Each structure stands twice: as structure tokens, then as C-alpha cells.
């Protein structure tokens, strides 16, 4: 009990420790040669404890609100804010390569060796640092891990531990000020600017406790400075010098020039992969997919996929997409050097693609003209329709009234077919009786809608009942002497459309004509019909008042609340 009590006294009351202090100008800056020293949320009590175990639920916003940033870069303070080690590594290396290009004779063997060593060191970054250590997308045997550690040091991009810590933070806080290579700060910044200038604020926390326990990572961390000198310059120079006597070419091309290409190949993942291409899986953040980026980054160019499914060992999921890193990892699995290759479920990947396709289609529909909404169209009786047809070329098709004045002379079958249908129900003729019209014809016809025909077609018994009725057309629920209308069941039976025989099935996208209120407003027909707008508002498909009335009667039959009158 005493041990438990003492432990409880030592443990802070709050499970969320206070935020770390802001980054000071004296803080050790990130560079290509060593580990960045940044304050963390809480020091782990044991090496196996994750560094973000006690992270606050609102950590991101709290960090952005409370941390103090360094003053903006100006010409006066620029010299004091340069990270000189990174600056020299990025500028001196290409200068050496350019000097060697003009002073050293061409050697084909050295050129081939430079390309081979480029892929050896570059693959150690993409397959090793990135997909193995940063994302744990597969397991590697010890020999392969040591190869990644040794040849990865030859890329001179920092240790495994430092590189993975920054990359995990990049994925967790993408496009925020806690992202070390925030793409919103510009292409140059995300490419190399973040290494050349001291960071203006602290980057977000990311757990690397698993790497702290890895013996290979510890080995590289211990001997890192010696490894970058030996594998960055001495080894490629020695191979060219000892095997075919080209010491100068080995140093300038396999050493300096190769290193320059490896650097910018990796840097393009942070910059070009967030600027060039499209977003087939998600557009919430900046990562993009593009073949050119994949070509210059050993297959890391399908970055939109990678940010959506970071633990997938692949960046490219289609066989024809360029991803040599994926091929390398799969090849290692065939010889027992890699195992447990992780892939995201294909069904979930397809969902992401499907969602983005729908989003793009929705954006495209905003630029299209659609018919007037069905609910905004007036409901017109058969008598009013025929009367108005004497003055306008109106025809009824599938429950809608259409004004064909602008199309009659352009009709492919001839204007005479339009004229003969004026004032009639041409549904049967339009749906295959005379010609089975195409989808384009249906779309064009929908743009001519000016009203909805009461009951969907000419109904003789409705006209007769209406003519002999003493019901006031302006009243919906009661007669002039205060008597209530027939109950809902009688009204529904009275207006059954199926009593008129089978009706043609509506094509896709066309709503079925529903029964409308048989009591039209007491206004002239010309006020109820209108020419279709040039730019209609939205697509049809929402329930019209006719559908609401039918639903009202069904609800009343079931003893439910009437959606129109609010009674039961």
C-alpha cells in the first residue's frame, strides 16, 4: 500500500499535463545531420511509454492558440535565422557536382554506378525510413533493416528517428502550423524552406517510442555521423576508384551529384506531391496523385492515396502505376526479408473513390440547367388545360403539361406531330406508341414543363362529379353548408388512377404522376400556367402537393396525423 500511495502522490492529478513551453530562438533547429530537440508534452516515465500518452483532447487547437512564435523573417534578421548546417548541405553539394561536371571526364561505368547507388540510397528512404519506420506498413528482417539504416544514412537526410518523428507529425497535422512542411506556406517552404530557416513555432508531437526500442535504430543513431561520411561520399567514391580507377568521377557523380538528386527526390514528396495532380480519394487536404511526381520520387507520387491510407505498403494500387518501392517491398517478401505487408480493404478504398466522383458530379450539376421543381409547378384541371391549349401549343405527357412553342418547328419527326398532340394527352405516343424517345428527348421535354395535370390524365368521372358538386372550389375540407367532405377512404377510391387502365412506366429520373387536389384555385388559367424559366432552380424529384395530398389521405385512413391539416 505504501508503494501505491507514493506512486499516487508522484503522479499528477490531471491526466493531461500542461502544454510544453514555446520554442525559443536558442532551441536546436532541425537539420539534415542530426536529431531535432523539441520540447514534448510530457517526458515518458519509461522508454516503452508513448510520448503522446497524456495528450489533451483539444491538443491541436490549444497548441495553435497558446504557443508563441518567433518574429517573421526580414532582411535584417535573415542571417540570424538560417540553419547553417542544412543550408550548407543543400547548397554546397550541388555546387560540388556542377564543378565536377565541367572538370571530370565522362565514364559510363561511373554513370551506371551513380544511378544504381541513387536507387539504393533512395529506396532506403522510401521503403525503409518512410513505409517501414514512419508508417509500419510491413515487417522487415534484421538484414534488410540494417541495409536501410546504412544506405539510408548515405542519403544524408537525418537519422531514422528524426526523419520518422517529423513525418508522423506531418501526417497527424497535415496543412496546419503544427505540420513541419506545411504546404499552405508555399511550394518553396514545403520543399526546402522549412530546413533552411529556423521554424517559427513548435511542430506537433508524435510518438516514436517504438523506434526508441529498435536496436537497428539505436545502432544508426549511435554511429550516424560516421555513416553519413562513409556512405555519403567515401563508399561510392571507393567503389568507382577501386573497381575501374575513376576516383574523381566516383566522388563528383556517385557522391555529390547522386546525393543532390536523392535530396530533391525526397523533398518533392513534401512539395510537388501537394501541388501537382488530382485528389481521387479525398480533397480535404493538399496531397495529390500524379505520375510525374511518382516518377521522380521512386513511386511516392500517388500521395492522395497515401495520406488516406498511410499504413498501406503501396502508394500505387493499379498495376500500371509507377511504384518501384512497392515492387521492391513485394520482392523482398518473396525471399523472406519482408512480411505482413499491410493493405487497406479494397471496399473502403472504392468508397473513397466513389465519394469523390459523386462530389465532382455534384459540382458539375451546378453548371447545368434543370427543369422547374415539380413542387413549384401549378396543378391544372383538364378543362383549364384544354382551354389554354386553344391559345398556346400545350400538350400533356406523363402527368406534366408542356409548352412546345419553341420546339415545334425543330421537332425531328416534323411539326405536324406536335400540332396534332396539342390539347391532348400524348403520353402513349411519346412512350413508344409513335416513337420510343431517347433519354435526350426526355431531358429536353422536361425543360418545357409549365404545369401538372390534375389526376395525371383526363378523368371523365372526376369532371362529371365536379360539375354536379355543390362544393366550393376554394374550400378543401368542408362544403358550403358546413358538411364535412367524404372521408379519406372514399376520396381515395374516387380518384384511383388505376381504374383508368395501365399507365406507361416512368423512365429513370421522371417522377410518377400523382393525384393532385381536384379543387383548383379560382383564378384564370393564364395565371396558373407559366412559361418555363430560362434558368430553372433545381432538379425535379421532390414531392409535389399532389403527392402530399395523397399521403394525407393515406395517413387519415391509418389514424395517423394528417400532414396537411395537422389532425388525426
UniProtKB/TrEMBL annotation:
SMART domains in the record: Cyt-b5
EC number: 1.14.19.1
Topological category with respect to the lipid bilayer: Multi-pass membrane protein
CDD domains recorded: Delta9-FADS-like (cd03505)
InterPro entries: Acyl-CoA_DS, Cyt_B5-like_heme/steroid-bd, Cyt_B5-like_heme/steroid_sf, FA_desaturase_dom, FADS-1_CS
Matches recorded under PROSITE patterns: CYTOCHROME_B5_2, FATTY_ACID_DESATUR_1
Name of the protein in its database record: stearoyl-CoA 9-desaturase
Gene Ontology biological-process entries: unsaturated fatty acid biosynthetic process
Enzyme class: oxidoreductase
Transmembrane portions of the chain: 84-105, 111-129, 223-244
Residue ranges annotated for the Cytochrome b5 heme-binding domain, each copy included: 389-454
UniProt GO molecular function: iron ion binding; stearoyl-CoA 9-desaturase activity
Keyword vocabulary terms for this entry: Electron transport, Fatty acid biosynthesis, Fatty acid metabolism, Heme, Iron, Lipid biosynthesis, Lipid metabolism, Membrane, Metal-binding, Oxidoreductase, Transmembrane, Transmembrane helix, Transport
Region ranges (Disordered): 1-30, 540-568
Subcellular location: Membrane
Pfam families assigned: Cyt-b5, FA_desaturase
Amino acid at each position: 500500500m505504501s508503494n501505491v500511495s507514493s506512486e499516487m502522490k508522484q503522479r499528477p492529478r490531471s491526466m493531461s499535463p500542461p502544454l510544453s513551453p514555446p520554442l525559443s530562438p536558442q532551441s536546436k533547429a532541425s537539420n539534415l545531420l542530426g536529431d531535432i530537440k523539441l520540447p514534448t508534452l510530457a517526458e515518458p516515465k519509461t522508454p516503452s511509454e508513448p510520448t503522446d500518452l497524456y495528450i489533451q483532447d483539444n491538443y491541436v487547437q490549444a497548441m495553435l492558440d497558446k504557443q508563441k512564435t518567433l518574429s517573421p523573417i526580414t532582411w535584417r534578421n535573415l542571417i540570424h535565422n538560417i540553419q547553417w548546417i542544412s543550408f550548407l548541405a543543400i547548397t554546397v553539394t550541388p555546387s560540388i557536382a556542377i564543378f565536377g561536371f565541367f572538370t571530370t571526364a565522362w565514364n559510363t561505368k561511373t554513370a551506371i554506378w551513380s544511378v544504381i547507388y541513387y536507387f539504393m540510397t533512395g529506396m532506403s528512404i522510401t521503403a525503409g525510413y518512410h513505409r517501414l519506420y514512419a508508417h509500419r506498413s510491413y515487417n522487415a528482417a534484421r538484414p534488410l533493416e540494417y541495409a536501410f539504416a546504412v544506405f539510408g544514412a548515405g542519403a544524408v537526410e537525418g537519422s531514422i528517428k528524426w526523419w520518422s518523428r517529423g513525418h508522423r507529425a506531418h501526417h497527424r497535422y497535415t496543412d496546419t502550423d503544427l505540420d513541419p512542411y506545411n504546404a499552405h506556406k508555399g511550394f518553396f517552404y514545403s520543399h526546402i524552406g522549412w530546413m533552411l530557416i529556423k521554424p517559427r513555432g513548435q511542430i506537433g508531437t508524435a510518438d516514436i517510442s517504438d523506434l526508441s526500442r529498435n536496436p537497428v535504430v539505436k545502432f544508426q543513431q549511435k554511429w550516424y555521423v560516421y555513416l553519413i561520411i562513409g556512405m555519403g561520399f567515401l563508399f561510392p567514391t571507393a567503389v568507382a576508384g577501386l573497381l575501374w580507377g575513376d576516383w574523381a568521377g566516383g566522388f563528383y557523380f556517385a557522391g555529390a551529384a547522386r546525393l543532390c538528386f536523392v535530396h530533391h527526390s525526397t523533398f518533392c514528396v513534401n512539395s510537388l506531391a501537394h501541388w501537382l495532380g488530382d485528389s481521387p480519394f479525398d480533397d480535404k487536404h493538399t496531397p495529390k496523385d500524379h505520375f510525374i511526381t511518382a516518377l521522380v520520387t521512386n513511386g511516392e507520387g500517388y500521395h492522395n492515396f497515401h495520406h488516406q491510407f498511410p499504413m498501406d505498403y503501396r502508394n500505387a494500387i493499379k498495376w500500371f502505376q509507377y511504384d518501384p518501392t512497392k515492387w521492391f517491398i513485394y520482392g523482398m517478401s518473396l525471399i523472406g526479408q519482408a512480411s505482413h505487408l499491410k493493405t487497406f480493404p479494397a471496399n473502403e478504398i472504392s468508397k473513397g473513390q466513389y465519394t469523390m466522383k459523386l462530389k465532382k458530379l455534384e459540382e458539375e450539376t451546378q453548371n447545368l440547367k434543370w427543369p422547374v421543381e415539380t413542387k413549384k409547378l401549378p396543378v391544372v384541371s383538364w378543362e383549364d388545360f384544354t382551354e389554354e391549349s386553344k391559345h398556346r401549343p400545350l400538350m400533356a405527357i406523363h402527368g406534366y403539361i408542356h409548352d412546345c412553342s419553341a420546339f415545334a418547328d425543330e421537332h425531328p419527326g416534323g411539326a405536324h406531330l406536335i400540332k396534332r398532340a396539342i390539347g391532348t394527352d400524348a403520353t402513349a405516343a411519346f412512350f413508344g406508341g409513335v416513337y420510343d424517345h431517347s433519354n435526350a428527348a426526355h431531358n429536353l421535354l422536361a425543360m418545357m414543363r409549365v404545369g401538372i395535370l390534375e389526376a395525371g390524365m383526363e378523368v371523365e368521372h372526376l369532371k362529371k362529379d365536379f360539375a354536379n358538386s355543390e362544393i366550393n372550389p376554394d374550400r378543401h375540407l368542408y362544403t358550403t353548408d358546413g358538411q364535412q367532405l367524404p372521408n379519406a377512404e372514399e376520396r381515395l377510391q374516387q380518384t384511383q388512377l388505376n381504374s383508368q387502365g395501365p399507365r406507361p412506366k416512368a423512365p429513370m429520373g421522371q417522377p410518377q404522376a400523382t393525384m393532385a387536389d381536384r379543387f383548383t384555385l379560382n383564378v384564370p388559367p393564364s395565371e396558373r400556367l407559366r412559361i418555363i424559366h430560362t434558368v430553372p432552380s433545381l432538379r425535379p424529384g421532390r414531392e409535389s402537393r399532389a403527392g402530399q395530398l395523397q399521403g394525407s389521405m393515406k395517413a387519415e385512413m391509418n389514424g395517423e396525423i394528417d400532414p396537411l391539416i395537422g389532425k388525426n
